[in-house]
Every structure is written in structure tokens, then in C-alpha cells.
């Protein structure tokens, strides 16, 4: 899929990037990198591709940071709900002590 990103039809270039899922942004980023690596684009086209790639990379980073924060919250919540009687069970069994 080739997209004309230099037509100036939208007031904010790459504004639709904010609506992309992680997978969509990553797939488009891979395409942009491939196009840049292939060469043959004019300076203006290359700059537009670079800017789009930056926007896509930022979107991917936002998704990953959000996922990381969610995992940290979930892990903290799980620790808070842990059974207090099992708090030192791991250290007892690790040292061969059955707690008796």
C-alpha cells in the first residue's frame, strides 16, 4: 500500500497515527523503513517518510509504555491480594525448611 503523504490534504500531517493500534503502527513503520532503505525517493518524499516514521515509532512507544504500566499495576495489585500465610513459604522451601 502506497500512501501519498506529501499532498497536504490534512492540516496536521500524520494526525491519524494516534488512532492506530500497536500492530498497525508497527506494520506501517516497517513499510516506511523499507521505503527509506530502498532509496529512490526525492528529498521532500524522504523527509515526509522520516517524519511519518518518527510519528509511528512514537505511537508504538506509547503503546508499549501503556502496556508496561498496566502490567506493573496488575503485578502490584496481585501482590497486595496475596495470601499472607504464604508470605514466607517460598523462603522456607528454598532453604529446605518445611516450617515445622
What does this protein structure show overall?
- The protein is mainly alpha-helical and 100 residues long.
- Helix content is 61%, strand content 0%.
- It has helices at 22-38, 43-80, 89-94.
Summarize the model shown:
By secondary structure, the protein is mainly α.
Instruction: Evaluate the radius of gyration.
Output: 24 Å
Average pLDDT confidence is 80
Proportion of residues in extended strands: under 5%
Number of helices: 3
How many beta strands in the DSSP annotation? 0
Question: Strand count, sense and closure of the main sheet?
Answer: none
N-C termini distance: 68 Å
Silhouette: elongated
Identify the notable features of this structure and list them briefly.
elongated, 3 helices, about 100 residues, mainly alpha, disordered N terminus, about 60% helix
Fold topology:
Elements: H1 22-38, H2 43-80, H3 89-94
